[in-house]
TrEMBL record:
Protein name according to UniProt: Molecular chaperone DnaJ
Keyword Methyltransferase: no
Organism for this UniProt entry: Vibrio sinensis
GO BP terms in the entry: DNA replication; protein refolding
Molecular-function GO term, any one: unfolded protein binding
Gene3D superfamilies: DnaJ domain, Urease metallochaperone UreE, N-terminal domain
């Protein structure tokens, strides 16, 4: 019975590298090894065939001879490398590190080691994996986000309610996250625990609004102060500022108060923008109405 082409036996091409050949051989050897197919003569013959092909094609000199002369290169009558008994070297052992080392001569002995390598594979510990990160939304007061605060938050972690001490940094913005390393899901196969992340959102303020690091608000001014000029008191959180109102100030005019805004986590402070709303007086007395009428006549 004529021998099959060695390249076809391993399912590789002539141009494939030794690395490709070893990869193909390893796959086939695992499949047809007699220890995995006890009593299967066909598998044993197949194993012999792929081992023979591997030993020829991974040897530079033998592969060159085979590519030039085919199987005849190893015919004793041609004076080549000799028959199969001449090249039953440790090719399989080279790849598998002796795990499939034969205990007898040739293929007549036992094919020991196959069960060992597979049992080791089954017993190998899976790689440690980091636990899942957990993410929750934490809603804080407007003032706490600007000035900073400390809170105790109860969160469901790994099926349990756990209390976490949270330090809210001054100047934190909506959407920013506070990370707690190792407070997330449990690790797998001895891996580290995941992280816990709190996504910050802020409750609206009664009259302040935030735009980045800037604050905006509206201040009411009476008609006389807006007309003749004066001062308005601006309240921002725990601070009070005096704002000079020029004569003739119109409702809707904006004033900028430099560095009176939010100090962010990098230490940069924004500005405060104050919008003026001129209040029209109501419930005037008759005398007041008369005075306004006289004033109107002078315009």
């Amino acid at each position: 019975m004529s021998k099959r082409d060695y390249y076809n036996v391993l399912g590789v091409s002539k141009g494939d590298s030794v690395k490709d050949i070893k990869k193909a051989y390893k796959k086939l050897a695992m499949k047809y090894h007699p220890d995995k197919n006890p009593g299967d003569a066909t598998a044993e013959e197949k194993f012999k065939e792929i081992k023979e092909a591997y030993e020829i094609l991974t040897d530079e000199d033998k592969r060159r001879e085979y590519d030039q002369f085919g199987h005849a290169a190893f015919d004793n009558s041609r004076g080549g490398f000799g028959g199969q008994s001449q090249y039953q070297s440790g090719g399989f052992e080279d790849i598998f590190g002796g795990a499939f080392r034969q205990q007898g001569q040739g293929f007549g002995g036992g094919f020991g080691g196959f069960e060992d390598i597979f049992s080791q594979g089954r017993g190998r510990q899976p790689r440690p994996q980091k636990g899942q990160d957990r993410e929750f939304t934490l809603t804080v007061d407007f003032v706490d986000a600007i000035q900073g605060a400390e809170k105790v938050v109860e969160l469901p972690i790994n099926g349990e309610q756990k209390k976490i001490n949270v330090k809210i940094p001054a100047g934190i913005k909506d959407g920013e996250k506070i990370r707690f390393s190792g407070k997330g899901g449990s690790g797998v196969n001895g891996g580290p625990a995941g992280d816990l992340m709190l996504v910050i959102t802020t409750r609206p303020h009664a009259f302040l609004k935030r735009d980045g690091d800037n604050l905006t608000c509206t201040t009411h001014v009476d008609m006389i102060s807006a007309t003749l000029g004066g001062e308005a008191e601006v309240h921002v959180l725990d601070s009070h500022f005096k704002l000079k109102i020029p004569a003739g100030t119109q409702s809707g005019r904006k004033f900028k108060m430099t560095s009176k805004g939010v100090t962010n986590r990098k230490g940069v402070t924004g500005d405060l923008f104050v919008t003026i709303q001129v209040d029209t007086p109501t419930n005037l007395t008759e005398q007041q109405k008369e005075l306004l009428t006289q004033f109107k006549a002078t315009l």
